[in-house]
Amino acid sequence: MSIRFSRQWRTATYLPPLGEVSQRPVRMRVELRRDPLTGRSGRLAHFQGFRLRRADLSAEVASSRQHCPFCPERVLLVTPRLGPEVAASGRIVEQDAVLFPNLSPYDRRSAVITLSGAHFLAPEDIRPHHLVNALLAAQRYLTAPGVVRRADFGLVTWNYMPLAGATQVHPHLQVIATDRPGTLLEEEFRASRNYRRRTGRLFWEELLETERQLGERWIGAGRHTSWLTPFVSRSVVSDLLVVFPGQGSLSGLTQAALEEFAEGLSAALQLLAEDGVVSFNLAIYPAPSGQVDPPLWLHARLSPRIHFNPQIGGSDATVWQHLLDEPFMVRSPERLAELLRPGLRAALTLA
Ligand SMILES: [Zn+2]
Hints:
Blueprint: E1 6-14, E2 26-34, E3 41-44, H1 58-65, H2 75-78, E4 92-94, E5 97-101, E6 109-114, H3 128-142, E7 153-160, E8 172-178, H4 183-199, H5 203-214, E9 218-221, E10 226-228, E11 240-243, H6 255-275, E12 280-285, E13 299-304, H7 319-322, E14 328-329, H8 333-348
Parallel strand pairs: 3-14
Antiparallel strand pairs: 1-2, 2-3, 4-5, 5-6, 6-8, 7-8, 7-12, 9-10, 10-11, 11-13, 12-13
Helix pairs in contact: 3-6, 6-8
The site of zinc ion has 5 residues, from loops.
């Protein structure tokens, strides 16, 4: 097996608080992991007394409705317009999904897609058709003349709810074409290329084979997508990973592939919401354009965001993630796979 899942353990020992009956030393184990592709470090660390509690979003939903720029009565008046070379009408519209340039761009090409006319969709209300329409709009944008240049990455991202960095409650995705997609994807792409040079094999193909054999993080494979949890997750309650075998970019996906992805994602959001997750980040990571046989397969990471301590609105982004670039998980990826497996397998009829 050329893929390595590196684990090490550390034990912390302390004396119990004075009020405890037993005064024997307490031993707590921390697990250190390395991502099998990039070698990036992450850890599983126990968090005393942690349990997921569903955050109440009703105040944010109510206070943001009146002036929301993405609601149907305002969206075509207050959002910027695309040039005629991209869309004759100034926007790309797919049923209820509307794509327009980002007022505050991140790069040369930077757009926003509203998912629906509804100001608020609870995670359970995000249905496959919302996602398919938005992704079709993203595809139209990314394949319009001049949007994605050679060697650009066509990124699709999502900050769902303020806890995940959203500046609007109204559900919306971001789509960006750039040759500088951020350190993580640059590293993944470089490491995927090096892996193929070194072994003559594709990392992503081997990852799926190995994970399927090991089974502990594997959820299942459909006709166009494979579902699992990443060995080193970025969310404190672990991430969901979706890989599109053989695909390099979102633009290359058929409608059937988009529908399968949307079906699974919608089911996953529902399962996570039942577990108490009502905020998340999502990124769809492509290979750069112009690659015939890319070493990196298109993949998506769904990363739940939670309040550590809802009572004081405590964020889950601590100094570990923010300044030390060391994600830590209080729930293991193996546990998350266990939680999602039955529901996702039933929703997608996965093999
Ligand atoms: Zn709205």
